[in-house]
Each structure stands twice: as C-alpha cells, then as structure tokens.
User: What shape does this take?
Amino acid sequence: METIFFEEFNKLDIRIGEIISAEHIEGSKKLLKLTIDLGVERRTIVAGIAEYYKGENLVGKQIPVIVNLTPKMIKGVESQGMILAGDNYGTPVLLHPDKMITNGSIIR
Assistant: This one.
C-alpha cells in the first residue's frame, strides 16, 4: 500500500450528499446517473453500481461524495464528482452515515 502525505489527502473535498434521483444510463448495464443534493447545489454523478443496486432503492440515501474532481464525460453524461464505496471482494458497498447529517457537511 502506497502512503501519501496528509497535505495530499487534505486536498480532497469530501462531503455528504443525498441521492435524490437515480436512473440507468441507456446502453450500459453498469452505470447509474445519480442526482445528488449537496445542500447548496445539486450534482450529477455517474456511478458503476447498477449491477448491485436498484436506482429506486437509493433515493433518499446519504453518501460521501468527492466534489472537487475534474468533471468527466461518461456515456454522454458529465459526471461532477465521485461517490465513495467499499470494495467487498469486487462488489461495491455504499457507505452511509450512522445518522442523518446535513447535506453538504464536510467529511474530515
């Protein structure tokens, strides 16, 4: 495992967001287009979790989001961040706060 300096980690802006919509991206079995409420703004994020999660079951869930990544076009949709998930032997497991927290809260 490679180590990094704390200053490098500190460059990441990770916040809590709430999934307000989730839909399949046409032509892909793996991708969901998520709309995330970050408190002061909403972002679109493309996530490769469609084989493991049904979009309708994600609505209302809070998740950590890296918000300061450069946007990237994926299957014609601009992804404006990245959700965080654990990797359980190749299967993604979404992370959630143990209680409700204000959307947009900073993860430290």
The first strand starts at residue 14 and ends at 24. The longest helix spans residues 6-10.
